[in-house]
Amino acid sequence: MSIITNIEDLRVLAQKRVPRMFYDYADSGSWTESTYRANSSDFANMKFRQRVAVDMSNRTLKTTMAGQDVHMPVAIAPTGLTGMQHADGEILAAKAAEKFGIPFTLSTMSICSIEDIAAHTSKPFWFQLYVMKDRAFIERLIERAKVAGCSALVLTLDLQILGQRHKDLKNGLSAPPKLTLANIANMMTKPRWCMGMLGTKRRGFGNIVGHASDVSDMSSLSSWTSQQFDPVLSWKDVEWIKKCWGGKLIIKGIMDAEDAKLAVASGADALIVSNHGGRQLDGALSSIAALPSIVEAVGDQIEVHMDGGIRSGQDVIKALALGAKGTYIGRSFLYGLGAMGEEGVTKCLEIIERELDLTMAFCGLTDVKKVDKKILIPGTY
């Protein structure tokens, strides 16, 4: 195996090792994928001011996100079906994040359950919540997150309805995969993945099966999810969830300044500028393009985070320069997980940390909390 030096190396390896339907699930957007591509390409247009002859010693990336101390301003984003990229994927990613000193966020649509993560980690993690029509199930999910000691609830607001993702439809995405001839032929070329899956009992949606009404096995799950995502979700529901939860609340999916103001009014502790990785509204702005107007609209009233398109430490520092107080990585850590399991997630975090640290130094700074627009060339952002 060649030496891995960047996130792209992990992506290439993951593509070789993960069955096509699950690799495609992670590495795709909706419709034409224009927003998915813009999330990354818009970062590339931004240029740095390089500074010289400044003291670059004693650098620190330590800061806080939503009041929690972090080793660097990066969290693991909530991603569905993570345990299909690699056996027990959410557990492995959570362990890597804990050792690294950054937050791990577990998705409602995870393969490993809330209880699985709590049993395999020693520090609090974050839980991401989708709002379903079955409010009693939502109350139970929130209570389970409390019992597990989760230190923040990440409420996703941009998946009331599902964007059309062509690759998932063509691949017949399911967890576990349907044993069609095409799927069997593809999985036969992924022996490491298959051996891992044979060695675990976690192959379904662990937070849902056996917990939601009328969902005792996988055969009833797909019909349940298609009926359960709630198109009438409103800010009143946010108030109800905040009251049920009672702890730190982070709102995910904000792409408009007016919605950012409503997030402030809701009493949330932080918001995430996010277009769901380009997987919902194709043709929307990239997250990094939407970030400045949202920061301007809400100022210091709420902590602003962002996700979407981050493939390097340089992308992280560009987001910080435009006002984000924290960032989230989804695909980047999934590539690492699919490539090499827990070791791959750790490698991903090490790559981002090194790139962030070196870029900060080249821009003449030693404390990540002091990063601002001055590190960028005017007119390039």
Automatic annotation (TrEMBL):
Keywords: Flavoprotein, FMN, Oxidoreductase
Listed GO biological process terms: aerobic respiration
SUPFAM superfamilies reported for this sequence: FMN-linked oxidoreductases
GO cellular component: plasma membrane
Residues involved in glyoxylate binding: Y25, R165, H276, R279
Similarity remark: Belongs to the FMN-dependent alpha-hydroxy acid dehydrogenase family.
Name of the protein described by the UniProt record: L-lactate dehydrogenase (Cytochrome)
